[in-house]
Amino acid sequence: MEMVSLTPYASPSRPALLDGGQSTLRTLLRDIYQQLKETPRAIWNDLRATGWRGAGFILIGLCWTLGLITAIGFLTIQSSWSYTNYVDPCGLGGEFSPFADSYNWWAPRGFFQITLRTPEVSFAAAKAIDITWDVVIGRGGQAVLAWVSWRVFADSVTVSIATKPATYTSFFLVFLQKEPSLVSVYRISRDFIFVRGLCSTIATYFMVATMAFILGFPTFASSMTGYTTADKAYLELRDGKMYQLSNATPVAYLIRDGDRINKTVNLMLGITVHADVSKYGFFGNAKKETEWNGTIIPSPALDVEAYNLPPGGDQLFGYNWSDHTGQYPFRNKENATYYISGEIYTINYIMKNASCQPIRKVRIDIQGALPRMKALTEWTLKKFQWGFSFIQVTLMAIFLVIWTAGIYVMWLKAHLTLRLNGHPGTAQGWKCLLQLAEVMEKQLKGAGIDSKALSDPELKDQIRKLLESGSVSSAIEFSKGNYSFRRGFCCWLKRERWWVLSLFVFIGLLTAIPFITNTWLGFLIMPVGILFSISFGRAAKSMMFLLLCFLILYLVVVVPLFSSWGTTTTK
């Protein structure tokens, strides 16, 4: 019988495959090394192309954008926050409501109410803050918005009139007037809608809306703020006296058989006593020997039930307790009860007899000799609070986000188009005036209009009828046309597809870092790092390198500081 060899047959092509695989791996590693070697140079080129001025504008834009996002996030959390029941009943809008979580932030009546308030100040301080806000934020904000918007409008109109000429009025208002007014908004809206708009309909309507928004910005900024008297909730007791409701003690638990611990039968307990309740439960269901405040009680446990309990997590036991039917019996606000001056007051009585009244500070000046004290002068000083209307400040933040996004897209489109065609920027000031004068003189002569023989209304009428409100084209050529976002993005993806894929994966990992490190500060810092890297880096590898540096800084500095701070606070 012939023996069969167990040695496997070696294929002659296998060494060639191994050599080819090793060669491919070496080539891949060499390419990766070369890319990493070129990354610092690419980052330096990106930063140098941006320049100090550009870097400053980028930082200001990032701070502005992150500030708006943070404000909207805060307002969103504020409107959906589940407050505990036992808070200042006059803290929202000055209307009495013992349950702050039942307040509707979006109710129409709150449009002009000061619902987001600062601490209590005097009348003079509140007035000074309000005037400063109107001048600095109202008028100053309008000036900044107008300056930014008109510079972007000039770039956008320069690109637009290369394919679709503008009227004399539109050109004058954008390049020469450079500030909004009621008349200018009306005139440019009329020209855009009824005569001739920009080459982009969306840009046309956005420009008109922006002008109207800037015009009304000071009024809107002043309307959303104000000052009002600081209020406190007072309850008229059964004996006719007034009692400050914030000093009342909410009743949390009721022991039906309190005599078993040498107390009254129906013993009421405040919100601070709950450890024994959480240990033995409600209604005496624990059939065993128990202990209550150091007193040993034979089986069964005390018959304990609860009134209305606020949502407070570990502060009170019973809010999340459910009976055998799956209901939550201790979340009924109608059962809320308060212990005041040795008496029990139900929520129904409080709702009928409580009200919000201004806080008064009484000062008594003694006139005359001190021993005699014949004359007393009493001064009543009210306390005030300055603040915002939640609805109006939310709308303002949304409008500013829309304005920021629209202005950025409009600027980016015009900027990339100008750079594509080799133009550094747009004409400003006197140059635009000379351009408009030259165009008007040529077109008026061509139409046979003698401007010297006509009055201003007659000249205006002739321009509207014979020249169709005039036609001003761009003085520079755009031989390569307009920049396309879609085409540019596709080319960028095709050119750096592997880096882009790695960048997306890395950004996904960065968003998970706060969960991994268990640092809530990461939810605020990580978006800053991502926006910073995307703003300064142009190539995908530059963005990824900046993100990597930011991640190392976060892990080395922020996480240890946050951990040490948490350890210190727990001690």
From TrEMBL:
Task: Please list every transmembrane segment annotated in the UniProt record, as residue ranges.
Answer: 54-77, 193-217, 386-411, 496-513, 519-537, 544-565
- Source organism superkingdom: Eukaryota
Keywords, ordered alphabetically:
Membrane, Transmembrane, Transmembrane helix
Protein name in the entry: Uncharacterized protein
Q: What organism is the protein native to? A: Thelonectria olida
> Which taxonomic lineage does the organism of this UniProt entry have?
Eukaryota, Fungi, Dikarya, Ascomycota, Pezizomycotina
